[in-house]
Specification:
With 474 residues, the protein is of the alpha/beta class. The chain is built from 15 helices and 18 strands.
Length: 474
């Protein structure tokens, strides 16, 4: 991230982080200002880095683990995402395509197990992140979206791993709170949470396990010439037996070899003022995450204090996959989000939006994360590319990176996600120009579908390329 974006990041915090930091001493962050040695040095204090640190200390309690974070733990996507805790089941067909049937089944079941693992972990360690495992609803809001889930549900059912059921329309409309609904599938294995409270809680647990966390400590360079790599910061150095790069969307701008591995695209979010009585009337007094079947999906859920969180992906694409200032500012699409909320829930007309914000999401060509060794170095591991579904997937990422660090031969080190990126996006400026062309075609296509009109053939053709930006099967 450039200096300008860094200054914006420190002056603006999304709603979730503002709420989380009310419970903490703002002077707590301590930077590294010494030369130290460690067994494992993790770059990045978000979900991936912290789950990796915790997993390492769980497997090897005597291991010395250091985490370096350039701002404060969770200031990036981990503290600003929509709080949707979703599994990989809706991506089953794509998983089969890239990794084969058996591995696809294992990954789906692993992601569903991760939901319960995170819930148990937060309960055990007193992380009050408002995690409600109340399920997920995937809905169709126009006739063009009807049937979008059928193929993946049929495939899951045929393999005996299906947790989804088709809801009667009356039930579905009642649980989603919207009359726009035309079809719905529900799974109990999902939910929602307050993401910043989760990441700050993970940092606390990691410290309690003996992990040394240095915030306000950006990496300035990585020296990988020797067997023991060295991480250089502004005021210190860390020589480590193993290094883990858990920087997510920042990987593409920090390491040239990943510049075409992802595109960075915004997810724009809004949260309302507390409206518990209205949510009760709509029967939206639960923690299920609800997503429609658009390419750049609408998603929403409520909070425990009676707010509605509403988001939409796919508005802003960053040239060169940079973490630009826009990702650290109030969203420019507040009016669009407000209009969408009122379309879904006409009774919310006049409801105040407490805050609108956005964040950069690292989307791979497959829509799945990938892990590997930097330049083949046996002691430098990385993982990123969560494509907008990181809350649950990062739990799996922590297991994969821990297994790689410990040189363990197990189901995680052999995961289909290991082996580096599968494919590349076009170089700039073609990637950025193409992304905008596809985005605009999708907007026109979906507007036509909302109006029950037939989209232009050219728009439908361009929209197919969204698969390369991490679109899910549904």
């Amino acid at each position: 991230m450039n200096d300008s974006a860094a200054s914006v990041a420190s002056s603006f915090r999304p709603f979730w982080m503002n709420e989380a930091m009310k419970h903490e001493d703002p002077d707590t962050p301590q930077p590294l200002n010494a030369q130290i040695n460690t067994d494992v040095c993790i770059i990045g204090g978000g979900y991936t880095g912290l789950w990796t640190a915790i997993e390492l200390k769980t497997r090897e309690p005597n291991l010395d683990v250091v985490v370096l974070e350039k701002e404060i733990c969770g200031y990036g996507a981990s503290g600003s995402n929509g709080g949707c805790a979703l599994t990989l089941a809706p991506k089953f067909l794509s998983l089969c395509k890239y990794f084969g049937l058996e591995e696809a089944k294992r990954i789906v079941m692993g992601s569903e197990t991760a939901v319960e693992e995170i819930k148990q972990f937060t309960d055990e360690h007193g992380i009050d992140c408002e995690f409600r495992v109340d399920g997920a609803q995937f809905i169709a809001t126009n006739e063009a979206q009807v049937g979008a889930m059928d193929a993946v549900i049929e495939a899951l059912e045929s393999e005996g791993i299906n947790s989804w059921r088709k809801q009667p329309l009356d039930e579905a409309r009642a649980s989603s709170g919207t009359s726009m609904l035309r079809e719905s599938y529900f799974s109990p294995v999902a939910g929602s949470l307050q993401p910043a409270l989760l990441v700050r809680g993970l940092a606390r647990v990691a410290r309690n396990k003996g992990v040394r966390i240095f915030e306000k400590t950006p990496m300035t360079s990585l020296i990988d010439k020797n067997e023991a790599p060295k991480v250089v910061t502004q005021f210190g150095e860390v020589t480590a037996k193993k290094v883990v790069l858990a920087m997510n969307a920042w990987m593409a701008s920090s390491f040239k070899q990943f510049s075409r591995s992802i595109v960075v695209v915004s997810s724009d979010m809004a949260i309302t003022e507390p409206i518990p009585e209205l949510l009760d009337e709509l029967r939206l007094n639960h923690g299920a995450t609800i997503c429609d079947s658009r390419t750049f999906v609408h998603y929403f859920h409520t909070t425990q204090d009676g707010r509605l969180l509403f988001g939409k992906g796919g508005n802003t694409f960053a040239f060169g996959s940079k973490m630009i200032d826009t990702f650290f500012e109030p969203s420019r699409y507040g009016s669009q989000l407000n209009e969408a909320i009122q379309s879904f829930f006409p009774s919310m007309s006049g409801t105040k939006l407490e805050q609108v914000w956005n964040g950069g999401s690292d989307r791979s060509t497959t829509g799945f994360p990938f892990f590997g060794n930097l330049n083949g170095h046996p002691n430098i591991h990385y993982g990123f590319g969560y494509s907008g579904n990181g809350v649950i997937q990062c739990r799996l990422g922590g297991k994969i990176l821990a297994a790689l660090c410990l040189d363990q031969d197990d189901e995680w080190s052999r995961s289909g996600f290991v082996g580096g990126p599968r494919g590349q996006f076009p170089p700039e400026p073609f990637r950025w120009i193409g992304s905008l062309a596809v985005r605009n075609a999708i907007r026109r296509k979906e507007l036509a579908e909302d109006r029950a009109q037939r989209p232009r053939a050219f728009d439908s053709y361009l929209a197919r390329f969204a698969k390369s930006a991490g679109k899910t099967d549904q």
